[in-house]
Specification:
The complex is a heterodimer. By secondary structure, chain A is mostly helical. Chain A is built from 14 helices and no strands. In chain B, helix 4 crosses helix 10 and helix 10 runs parallel beside helix 11. Classes of the chains: A mainly alpha, B mainly alpha.
């Protein structure tokens, strides 16, 4: 167990610093760059007295460091402004739409990780052969494909031309009414399992297929490439070759020795690809009308709803920092060579 | 071609996939550079006119990529789009490189208080998922080619600053730097004449490999409506224009996306080629087989 209490304490302290940094940048974006920040806060069709009230509320008459102070206080009190589009407090909107995005991205991530490691290992074992080349090409395409385009193509093919899969939404509304499904946690898979509502569960899963495939492409490509190159190098190690000569079964060798060398760097790279996946969710949820944070921010972008855009982005950045913290800790736990 | 070692081409020729990537990149660069002069229907490409009689023509000999909702030839629009992708990618990577190299160089060599401040600043930017920060900046900066470049560069430079910082740190204790210090050269001279040239290669190589991602992210911004405004035929913009018609005219979104995919794949293949070429260990494994 290489993880010490000091390491954890240090990392958590660092997390607070990072969150502080995230807030400083969002402060610059919302309050320093725009010529009249109050207009972002109230919307395009606000009346003069509303704008005046916003000026007071945002403390825009005060010096900039006082503004920053109030910005931070407001942030931690949960006063993130009101969305013009939904006319609800931004923080409330975000909390209700978070589970949908998490359900989607976590599923995509786990699938990408499992499939990616397996394909990467297959490619490494068959290094230089046709299978390896095919998998390599697949991984390059997966890592290069524009998510928004792939989403549109899959939607066109599988729900318009050959309507085998639903092309949007989290669940069929009529099914919800028929079966009396009630969202409790807003994680629909969990909710339908708790209520033993199988029709809803199946519908939810069916509607997740296309968005998940679209979202998982980037992390999949990255995982295959990472696994393949680490496994190729590790198969060259003297001790692994020695084991081969001793006649250790290939599967056992892969599982016991190679996989261990491969997993740690792959996990380390997952943190970064999470950043891409969650940004991809922005476009994928828009295309598949999947009401998560991505859809929320995407719609906000299309309607210039600034409190919602920036609230959503700051929130995602904080989640991203948290994920990176968890990834680092897992990495340190698996690979004792990681130094701090 | 003095910049590229001659045996790199020998290395390429033996690997058809990498050669394909190289050809795609060269073709994209050439087409992007001369796009305005090879258009057959310039007024369609620039989007200044429209003819509703020709709207939604499926792909045919006359319109290989079909026509859009305003009857404009998609092939011409896609060709002109390559120019915007090229300009944006080169500017984003170039601008980020300049900022990143300066920040990394100063932070790495001066270390101490200034260095810490600069690197913490870099970390603040790295706390955001890359594209998301660009979206945030683009949303307040407004739409336009220039603002797209700025928004992307703001989210891009910290990666180069970090890389430069690491490579400056590995160079700064070299003997020739110590010698320069002993002779009494100023800090600025040492940085400019000794540290900079010797720590530049990793970050410049990385920046070349990043062109594909820059093209991809620029098109994502345009797709989300915060990148370049209409009627500029940037590829992400074209895909989002075709989005509403996707059930009746798939070609408006399909072809720009396909070209975008091929271009990015080309850059990534070339990037892999360069990485493999520069990693002797990987090459020796290949040679053994």
């Amino acid at each position: 167990m290489p993880i010490t209490r000091t390491y954890l304490a240090k990392r958590i302290l660092l997390l607070f610093l990072v969150v502080f940094g995230v807030l400083i940048i969002s402060f610059i974006i919302t309050r320093v760059i725009p010529a009249r920040p109050e207009l972002l806060w109230v919307g395009a069709h606000a009346r003069a007295e509303q704008i005046e009230r916003a000026r007071k509320e945002l403390h825009l008459d005060e010096p900039i460091y006082i503004q920053l102070y109030y910005y931070l206080v407001d942030f931690f009190r949960g006063n993130w402004g009101v969305s013009w589009r939904t006319r609800q407090p931004v923080i409330l909107d975000i909390v209700t739409s978070l589970p949908a995005t998490l359900e989607l991205t976590i599923t995509a991530f786990i699938l990408a990780f499992i499939i990616g490691v397996i394909l990467g290992l297959i490619a490494a074992i068959n290094y230089g052969k046709v299978v390896d080349k095919a998998i390599s090409v697949l991984s390059i395409i997966a890592a290069s494909i524009p998510v928004f385009w792939l989403g549109l193509v899959l939607q066109t093919v599988f729900s318009i031309w050959y309507p085998v899969l639903p092309g949007g939404m989290r669940v069929d509304p009529s099914l919800v009414i028929e079966t009396g499904f009630k969202p409790i946690t807003n994680f629909y898979i969990l909710d339908s399992l708790i209520q033993l509502n199988i029709p809803v569960l199946l519908d939810v899963l069916k509607r997740m297929i296309l968005p998940v495939i679209t979202l998982m492409m980037y992390p999949l490509g990255l995982t295959i490439r990472m696994t393949r190159s680490m496994a190729v190098e590790s198969l060259q190690e003297i001790y692994v070759r020695a084991l081969e000569v001793w006649g250790l079964p290939r599967s056992k060798m892969l599982y016991k020795y190679v996989l261990k060398n491969v997993i740690a760097p792959v996990i380390a790279s997952l943190g970064l690809s999470f950043g891409y996946t969650i940004t991809g969710a922005l476009m994928v949820e828009l295309i598949f009308v999947y009401p998560g944070i991505g859809y929320y921010v995407g719609m906000a972008l299309l309607s210039y709803d600034y409190p919602a855009i920036l609230g959503g982005i700051v929130f995602v950045a904080i989640i991203y920092s948290l994920v990176n913290l968890v990834v680092d800790i897992i990495h340190a736990w698996i690979d004792p060579r990681v130094k701090f | 071609m003095g910049l590229i070692p001659r045996d790199f081409f020998k290395f390429l020729v033996k690997r058809p996939l990498y050669t394909a990537g190289f050809i795609i990149v060269i073709a994209f660069t050439i087409i992007g550079s001369i796009a305005p002069y090879i258009l057959t229907k310039p007024e369609d490409a620039w989007g200044v006119t429209y003819d509703l009689n020709k709207a939604f023509q499926p792909p045919s000999l006359e319109y290989p990529f079909g026509t859009d909702a305003y009857g404009r030839d998609m092939l011409n629009r896609v060709i002109l789009g390559s120019r915007y992708s090229l300009i944006i990618a080169v500017c984003v990577v170039g601008l980020s490189l300049i900022i990143g190299v300066i920040v990394g160089l100063v932070a790495g060599y001066l270390a101490g208080f200034i260095g810490t401040i600069l690197m913490r600043l870099t970390d603040m930017f790295l706390a955001y998922p890359p594209l998301l920060l660009a979206v945030a900046f683009a949303s307040v900066l407004g739409r336009g080619v220039l603002t797209t470049i700025m928004a992307l560069a703001i989210s891009w430079w910290p990666w180069y600053a970090r890389l430069m910082y690491v490579s400056v740190n590995s160079v700064k204790s070299a003997q020739y730097v110590e010698a320069a210090k002993v002779v009494g050269l100023s800090k600025f001279t040492i940085m400019a004449k000794y540290i900079l040239p010797n720590s530049l290669i990793p970050v410049v190589t990385q920046s070349m490999l990043d062109m594909g991602s820059a093209i991809l992210e620029a098109s994502a911004l345009s797709f989300l409506g915060v990148g370049v405004p209409p009627p500029i035929p940037e590829w992400g913009r074209l895909i989002s224009e075709g989005w509403v018609y996707v059930s009746k005219a798939y070609w408006i979104t399909f072809f720009p996306g396909l070209v975008l995919l091929v271009t990015v794949v080309g850059f990534n293949l070339l990037g892999d080629a360069v990485k493999e070429y520069m990693n002797p260990r990987l090459r020796s494994i290949v040679a053994k087989r």
